[in-house]
Amino acid sequence: MATADTKPGGSEETRSDESRMRSDESRMRSGGPVSSWESELASIQHFLKFVLTLKDEFVCPVCRGVVLNPQQNSCGHIYCYHCLQGLLDSTSPSGPLCPVDGAMITPAEVFQDNCCKREISCLEVYCTNYPSCTSVVTLQHLQEHLSSCQYEQLQCTNPGCRAALQRRHLQEHLSSTCPQRTEPCPHYQQPLRLSLVQDHLQSSCPQVEVNCPNSCSQKVPRHQLLEHQGACPEAQVDCAYRRFGCPVQDKRSNVELHQDAAVNHHMLLILRSNTHLEQQVEALQGEALLRQQEVQTNSLLLAGLQKKMVPVQQASSSHEHMVSAAQRTLSRQEDVLSSVQLEVQQVTRGLCSGQEELDQLRKSLEAVIQEVSVTEALKEHLETLEEKLRRHASLLQLHATQLSRNEQHLQELGAASYDGKLIWKIDGFRRRREAEAKGQPPCLTSAPFHTGRCGYKMAAKAYLNGDGEGRGTHLSLYVVLMQGDFDALLPWPFRQNVSLSLLDQSGARNHRSLNFRPDPASKSFHRPAAESVNVASGFSCFIPLAKLENPQNASYLDDDTLFVKVKVDTGGLEHL
User: Fold this and answer.
1) What residues contact 500, with CB distance under 8 A and at least 6 apart?
2) Picking from 63-72, 131-140, 278-287, 355-364, which range would have the lowest pLDDT averaged per residue?
3) Which of 69, 127, 304, 373 is deepest in the core (most CB within 10 A)?
4) What is the DSSP letter of 59?
5) To 10 degrees, the CA torsion angle through 476, 481, 484, 489?
6) Is 199 in contact with 208 (CB distance < 8 Å)?
7) Domain 31-146 homologous superfamily, CATH
8) What is the CA radius of gyration of the chain?
9) Per CATH, is 416-568 categorized as 2.60.210.10?
10) Alpha-carbon span 238 to 205, nearest angstrom
11) Which of 256, 225, 226 is nearest to 238 (CA)?
12) How far is CA 48 from CA 33, 38, 133, 258, 461, in A?
């Protein structure tokens, strides 16, 4: 076994301690979800053909297929992860039993067998398309091979096609033989599904030449049909002389012949129309002459009347001046009367408004008196309620403080250790380290542990980004003495040796451990004062961060998680 990496003054763990710790780690490492290549093989694990006969130890006793993501029970038998989960979820009154020897399966004792997993992943198997494909690959690379195997059955990707064929024939099917493939329109170059090309050509393609709907002998592109209608010889049209009274309507070619042959008839229609128009013009000219004569007569009468109106207008003008003067006098008198009426109205309104204002003031005063009474009563009630609220708030604060203490005490009891040992799991290492580098929070503190039921109370502290000399370069680990319930019965200062370890998670047991003996003169190891915690002691440069993340023969950081062990030498301590 490889030895632990220690500094001068450090001590190697005993073989018995390592065995116990390995057992603890095994219980903590339960099987996780199946990795990607194993989950992809779950559906075909019973159809795999191995080059060499599959060992019995690699066959799952539940599903009888090759073991995927092997999980080992305390009895030594190996199961698939999902098969084991099915056993654990069974509702048997006696609990899950091993199907091989009937031993009880304890979930805390199940762990993932990575050694067996590596062996299984390297087993050689034939391609599932054997004998068409003679390739031989390792089990973990089978799915990667199937993603490019030319004999793998694939579904056609064209919508509506359900054909399944080997990968080597798929491209030819997609481009040449698939009835649902896409083809360009031969006239318009628009991509269409093959089943729709014929309908497109027959009904909507604008470049296809179609027969004229008038049954002429020409074929024209579909988009030029309207333009052709304007010149088609078979189209139904009216004679050009329809507005002169010709009723002929026929094909354009026949109408043109009609217009050439019926020139005399058309001229007679035009002459008849012109004659009718001339008669209408003559009638209108006669009416206009009569209107002109009436206008002249009316003009003479108007001139005579204007001469008679001159003296009348002069007399009217003088009368207007008199009326205007009378109106101005009347207007002044009306203004005086209006002002008198306004003054009377204002006096009357003032008397009425004064009485109304007095009544309103009386009512307002009574309302204010009532509101003051109600307000005083509410103020007294409010003072009573505030006093009750203060008493309840004080009681609530006392209950909250006691509840917080009880919760902290329960948490400490739940994680408490009384043998002088602490296994501390620190997850989310990189996220916590980045937060610590930014100053928030400054460090991590473990749950308290004890050297005995009535022993010293202690806790571990970790600075993931380093502290003091190791800030930014090392992981810093410390131990701190805390005030305990039995400090008055214990010898002081604290003199027991303390070992700090960073556990190797690779299984090679290359833990990194450093020890220190307390200095009796240091206040860090004197009895903690009331409501205080001593200064922590330990190693500011426990391990370089570069070596922590990339060690040579160990794995301290796995799945972004660290395991720190603190062991206090309890030798010589008297058990109370």
Assistant:
1) 460, 477, 479, 513, 514, 515, 516, 538, 539, 542, 564, 565, 566
2) 355-364
3) 69
4) B
5) 150
6) no
7) Zinc/RING finger domain, C3HC4 (zinc finger) (3.30.40.10)
8) 55
9) yes
10) 32
11) 256
12) 22, 13, 14, 91, 52
Domain ranges of the chain: 31-146, 416-568
- The rounded distance, in Å, linking the Cα atoms of 376 and 517 is 73
pTM (two decimals): 0.35
151 three-class SS: coil
Residues recorded for the chain: 576
Structure tokens, 440 = 């928030």
Who's near 535: CB < 8 A, 6+ residues apart?
A: 480, 523, 524
Contact by Cβ (8 Å): 126, 49: yes
- Residues 259-275, mean pLDDT to the nearest whole number: 84
Segment 404-417, tens digit of pLDDT: 777 766 766 665 78
Beta partners for residue 249, in sequence order: 238
Distance CA 557, CA 502 (A): 10
Peptide bond into 544 cis (omega under 30): no
Q: Which two tokens stand for residue 128?
A: 């599932």
Cα–Cα dist 391/395, whole Å: 6
Number of helical (H) and strand (E) elements in the chain, helices listed first: 12, 23
